[in-house]
Every structure is written in C-alpha cells, then in structure tokens.
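TASK: fixed-backbone design
INPUT:
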C-alpha cells in the first residue's frame, strides 16, 4: 500500500500463522485496514479484513475502534457463523488488550511475547526471509 510504513506482516495466532497485508492506510484519519490469509484458514472463509481507527477521547486518551469483516461462504455462514463470531470476538479482545498494554508500558504484552517466541512463530518469520 503506497504510503504505509510496511506492506504487512506475518504473525502467529491461535489459528496458526497468518499473513496480514495492508489494504488501506490513512495517517490523517488514524486508520489502517489489512486483509489476513493463512494456510489453515478454511476454504469457506472467502476473506477477512480488519480495520483499526483511532480517535481522541480526551486528555491522554484514545478510543480504538476495530471492525472485522469476514466473508463466509453459504451454508457455513449460517451453520458456523455464530461460533466463528465468538472466536473472532475473543481474538479482537486480546488484540485490544495487547495494544493497551503496549501503549501504557512501551513493551509487548507477556502473552504476545510468549507467542512470538514459539517455534511456529519463529518458523513463520524464517519462511518469509
């Protein structure tokens, strides 16, 4: 994405390694959106796009809005949509918690450090190098 400081990243998640590619980057609006793909993503998941928007919320405070759009193929969207929504909700909650910890301490959340040091995460980074 032109203007973005990076094209994306590879990260290890509870769903396995994912490649996140920047789709939208607007520093004037404090907004970034990225698509996510992974080897273990089921074929019925057609696309995942997550967007983050930051807005001032008073002195020394910022509101973070995350919106995950998942395109799930029929009939899986009906049969499994509720379960996937619950899983994604948990992943987004962890992401917000990680961001809050980083903003307040300047260091990654201990949970994130543990995942980043895992064999799977190291292998995923080495595969991209």
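OUTPUT:
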């Amino acid at each position: 994405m032109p203007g973005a400081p990076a094209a994306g990243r590879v990260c290890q998640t509870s769903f396995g390694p994912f490649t996140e590619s920047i789709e939208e980057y607007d520093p004037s609006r404090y907004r970034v959106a990225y698509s996510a793909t992974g080897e273990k993503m089921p074929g019925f998941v057609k696309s995942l796009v997550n967007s983050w928007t930051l807005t001032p919320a008073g002195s020394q405070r910022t509101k973070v809005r995350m919106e995950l759009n998942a395109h799930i193929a029929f009939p899986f969207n009906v049969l499994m949509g509720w379960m996937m929504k619950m899983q994604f909700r948990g992943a987004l909650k962890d992401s917000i918690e990680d961001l809050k910890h980083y903003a307040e301490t300047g260091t990654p959340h201990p949970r994130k450090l543990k995942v980043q040091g895992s064999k799977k995460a190291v292998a995923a980074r080495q595969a991209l190098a």
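COMMENT: Residues 81-105 form the longest helix (25 residues).
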